[in-house]
Specification:
- The chain has 374 residues and is an alpha/beta fold.
- The chain folds into 2 domains: 4-150 and 273-297, Rossmann fold (3-Layer(aba) Sandwich); 152-271 and 305-370, Rossmann fold, CATH 3.40.50.
- Helix content is 36%, strand content 20%.
- The strands form 4 sheets. It has a 7-stranded mixed β-sheet with strand order 14-12-11-10-8-9-17, with helices on both faces. A 6-stranded parallel β-sheet has the order 4-3-5-6-7-13, with helices on both faces. A two-stranded antiparallel sheet has the order 1-2.
- α5 (118-125) links the parallel β5 (109-112) and β6.
- α3 (63-77) packs across α10 (275-287) and α4 packs parallel to α5.
Length: 374
């Protein structure tokens, strides 16, 4: 039986969370529902339909583009398979209608590439013979799994480089919404920066969208006008990188390699790759062994830092990469207390290491981060 410590290190639910959700640990090390139905029946590739529901346009060169590459990897791995997708699905009743449409079209598996909550959950409950996955999902079912990435580790690494390259220590962040992925990203970034610049701060501006180039550009401009000299964010496009390029500042990006939009400003990017995950899950669905899993894809296995930008000094890259190597080879975690929130309250006791689930569900800002907590 795999240990609780090893389970946490690999990115699966911790045992306390698993028990609370009615989940059990299988011999393979994957968390499954305690009362899961039998694996769904096998499907021939040429008779299968795999559907993808996206939060943004597949042309965004960011988050949705990365998931679309995963769909293309599935098509390449299983010749003859049929795929379908809908992009820019709103967070409304229209989402429910679209997911129901996938089911009515005969989809054998549906991937929601963002968190659609009840809009997806209600559809999955009524379609027990369809396998569902929700990226960044929170409510598992016997036929609904969840997956996400441990982005906080490469973000911490990028934060080290950002802190070293910031003359003022004033960092800026273009946020979508005050959600856990934003809290864990901002906190990890500043914690990394403070290892080389203890007085560094991070100012955030939320634009209430995952994809809005105009709003992201305006937010990036405002942050630079407020004195920030390195920008970071979680946007699905290159708006604030172009602002940094035009203003002679620096930026760290998300999702993909976007350096061509700001080659002098580009430090790195938190890059995601879901190809292997999608191919594996579709393969299990086709062969008749699929039941839902709940996974946080690790650094080096779904998320990582991008190659360093051309203007990153060699000594800065080496310092940051030394920490990345320690994470990869020794299981090092920098998320160890004492950690205080933005109001000075101790949230993580001295010597206590945050679990993967605590990092995944992070919903408060650390000292030095402003703009997310009102």
């Amino acid at each position: 039986m795999i240990s609780t410590k090893e389970l946490s290190r690999r990115g699966f639910l911790n045992m306390g969370a698993a028990a609370g959700a009615g989940l059990v640990l299988s011999q393979t090390g994957l968390i499954r529902p305690a009362h899961a139905a039998a694996p769904l029946a096998p499907v021939k590739a040429e008779e299968a339909l795999i559907a993808f529901g996206h939060t943004g346009p597949t042309s965004d060169e960011g988050w949705t583009w990365a998931h679309d590459q995963g769909m293309k990897a599935v098509e390449a791995a299983f010749p003859g398979i049929k795929t379908t997708y809908v992009e820019s699905i709103p967070y409304s009743a229209d989402a429910t209608r679209i997911f129901r449409q996938f089911v009515s079209q005969g989809a054998n598996m549906v991937f929601a590439t963002s968190n659609y909550g009840d809009f997806l959950y209600d559809v999955a409950k009524r379609a027990p013979k369809v396998g569902f996955y929700e990226c960044d999902g929170r409510n598992p079912l016997d036929n609904l799994g969840t997956y996400y990435v441990q982005h906080w580790y490469p973000t911490y690494v990028a934060g080290i480089a950002a802190g070293a390259m910031s003359p003022t220590g004033k960092l800026g962040y273009v946020a979508s919404f005050p959600v856990p992925s934003v809290y864990s990203g901002t906190n990890a970034f500043l914690m990394g920066a403070r290892t080389v610049n203890p007085n560094a701060t991070l100012q955030c501006i939320s634009i209430n969208s995952w994809f809005d180039p105009q709003a992201a550009t305006q937010a990036g401009t405002a942050l630079l006008d407020n004195g920030c000299d390195v920008l970071f964010g979680i946007m699905d496009e290159a708006g604030y990188l172009q602002v940094a390029q035009d203003r002679g500042k620096k930026a760290v990006m998300w999702n993909t390699d976007l350096r061509r939009y700001g080659p002098d400003a580009y430090i790195s990017s938190i890059v995601v790759n879901f190809n292997d995950f999608y191919v594996k899950q579709v393969g299990r669905r086709l062969e008749g062994s699929w039941t839902p899993t709940y996974e946080l894809l690790p650094m080096g296995g779904g998320v990582d830092r991008d190659a360093w930008g051309a203007t990153v000094p060699a000594e800065v890259a080496a310092k940051a990469d030394a920490v990345r190597t320690k994470m990869m080879t020794e299981g090092y975690s920098p998320f160890v207390g004492e950690i205080k929130d933005a109001k000075g309250n101790i949230k993580v006791a001295k010597g206590q290491t945050m679990t993967e689930q605590e990092l995944y569900h992070w919903n408060w800002s650390i000292e030095g981060v402003s703009g997310l907590d009102g």
